[in-house]
């Protein structure tokens, strides 16, 4: 059992207690962050005269060797070590002797793990934002290609008004754009360095915390040493943002699943992102979309778990906080995988434009525009609403769309109809006369696409 403590104890830790206490099985993910933090700490110790330049160089060379051997597979991180910190320090002492024992001067595992987790989370925030930007680029490409592709818009999963595929995709662009902005905001708020907080009360060594923070690309040191070792707000914020990202992916997945169904046929998912049935040879299942939707609950669980863990912890560090890692690591990896796979599915998906247009036409999505037509011809809106209700009922009985009615049939319901009704309720007119900011009309969408491009630039 390689551990960093023991002088106070007269008997060995029970093996089951040791295993229960150990975190090496999951905190080895923090290895590169631990080495990075140790390098900065050692450089700072030398700069303030706590260790010599020669000791600094010896320790840095030892850390370089350990890192190289781990990356090459020559050195394995095993369960004989309690945690990643003891793995690094024990191997350093084995390699360079007494100089390695000075690595931990002026540092506690409390501020060390707080630093490692913050560095790791910051890396994951940036990685997630990059993957979201790629997804936004895919969505933007669809918007540009389908600026005039007409489809039905829905409320209550009922066909409502005609829109374009670009307009529909633009809604998801806005969602994921907000997600990117949220991640940027989280990074700004978390970017302060806890190293130098010690166990909870700082240290008597003359540490230069500003130097350490600068070496690790932080804005500066955390302001309070107790908060420095016990703060996990940044991780809770990140998990919350991941839950929102996953919720957006799940909503999008739900629509893809519906659009892929035999009843809709709006999309064709590429074979590379579909699976078949073991018994039904005709099936082509949207498994990626379903798994993205399904994994959302798993990500929500990580946030709930950490909030529950943190809710009763007094200041400062407590061992409960070791539970901040496993589910958080899983949530980060899950969301990143979901973004990448969903992006690939979306990028290779085929949109059936003719089916979408026919669905808009046959779903009475131009009924509101027909009512507006009557209002513009002097009919009070409430009367116009009732007249178009009669028109729709007539069409349902006949099995036709409003566009398929003759002028005589329309006039039989209301004499206010004239020959210009057909142009007024064409799908193209219904869409393109909607030109307010954020609407689906062609000119409005040109402006929206320009805005989206500017955001990604």
Structural overview:
- The chain is mostly helical and 457 residues long.
- The protein is 61% helix and 5% strand.
- The protein has 19 helices and six strands.
- The protein has helices at 15-21, 24-27, 31-47, 53-72, 84-96, 109-145, 165-190, 209-215, 225-230, 233-259, 287-310, 326-347, 353-362, 367-376, 381-398, 407-413, 421-424, 427-432, 442-456; strands spanning 150-155, 158-164, 192-193, 220-221, 267-268, 350-351.
- It has a two-stranded antiparallel ribbon with strand order 1-2. A two-stranded parallel sheet has the order 3-4.
- The model has no long low-confidence stretch (mean pLDDT 94).
Name some characteristics of this structure.
457 residues; mainly alpha; two-stranded antiparallel ribbon; two-stranded parallel ribbon; 6 strands; 61% helix
Summarize the amount of helix as a percent range.
55-70%
Main beta-sheet strand count, sense and barrel state: 2 strands, antiparallel
Walk across the major sheet and give the strand order.
1-2
Determine the number of helices (DSSP H or I, runs of at least 4 residues). 19
- How far from one another are the termini? 52 Å
Quaternary state reads single chain
- Give the uncertain stretches in residue-range form: none
Broad structural category: mainly alpha
- CA gyration radius, whole angstroms: 31 Å
Percent strand: under 5%
User: What is the number of beta strands?
Assistant: 6
On the 0 to 100 scale, the average pLDDT is 94
Described by the principal axes of the CA atoms, the overall outline is elongated
H/E element order: HHHHHHEEHEHEHHEHHEHHHHHHH
């Amino acid at each position: 059992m390689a551990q960093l403590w023991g002088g106070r104890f007269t008997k060995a830790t029970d093996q089951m207690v040791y295993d229960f206490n150990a975190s090496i099985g999951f905190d080895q993910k923090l290895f590169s962050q631990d080495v990075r933090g140790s390098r900065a700490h050692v450089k700072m110790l030398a700069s303030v005269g706590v260790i010599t330049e020669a000791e600094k160089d010896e320790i840095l060379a030892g850390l370089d060797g350990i890192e190289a051997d781990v990356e090459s597979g020559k050195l394995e991180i095993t369960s004989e070590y309690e945690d990643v910190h003891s793995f690094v320090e024990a191997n350093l002492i084995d390699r360079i002797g007494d100089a390695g024992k000075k690595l931990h001067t002026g540092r506690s595992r409390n501020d060390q793990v707080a630093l490692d987790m913050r560095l790791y989370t910051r890396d994951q925030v940036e990685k997630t934002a990059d993957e979201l930007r790629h997804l936004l680029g895919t969505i933007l490409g669809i918007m540009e290609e389908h600026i005039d592709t007409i489809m039905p818009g829905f409320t209550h999963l009922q066909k409502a008004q005609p829109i374009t595929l670009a307009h529909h995709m633009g809604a998801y662009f806005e969602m994921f754009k907000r997600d990117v902005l949220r991640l940027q905001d989280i990074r700004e708020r978390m970017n302060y360095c806890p190293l130098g907080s010690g166990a909870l009360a700082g240290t008597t060594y003359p540490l230069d915390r500003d130097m350490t923070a600068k070496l690790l690309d932080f804005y500066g040191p955390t302001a309070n040493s107790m908060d420095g070792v016990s703060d996990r707000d940044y991780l809770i914020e990140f998990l919350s943002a991941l839950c929102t990202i996953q919720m957006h992916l799940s909503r999008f997945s739900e629509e893809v699943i519906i659009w892929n169904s035999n009843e809709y046929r709006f999309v064709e998912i590429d074979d590379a992102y579909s699976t078949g049935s073991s018994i039904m040879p005709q099936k082509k299942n949207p498994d990626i979309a379903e798994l993205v939707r399904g994994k959302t609950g798993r990500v929500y669980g990580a946030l709930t778990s950490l909030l529950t863990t943190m809710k009763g912890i007094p200041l400062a560090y407590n061992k409960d906080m070791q539970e901040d890692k496993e589910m958080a690591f899983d949530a980060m990896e899950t969301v990143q995988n979901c973004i990448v796979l969903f992006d690939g599915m979306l990028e290779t998906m085929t949109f059936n434009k003719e089916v979408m247009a026919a669905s808009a036409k046959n779903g009475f999505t131009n009924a509101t525009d027909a009512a507006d037509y009557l209002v513009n011809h002097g009919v009070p809106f409430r009367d116009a609403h009732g007249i178009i209700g009669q028109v729709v009922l007539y069409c349902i009985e006949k099995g036709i769309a409003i566009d398929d009615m003759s002028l005589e049939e329309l006039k039989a319901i209301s004499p206010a109809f004239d020959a210009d009704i057909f142009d007024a309720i064409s799908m193209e007119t219904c869409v393109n006369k909607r030109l307010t900011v954020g609407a689906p009309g062609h000119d409005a969408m040109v402006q929206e696409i320009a805005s989206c491009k500017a955001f990604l630039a």
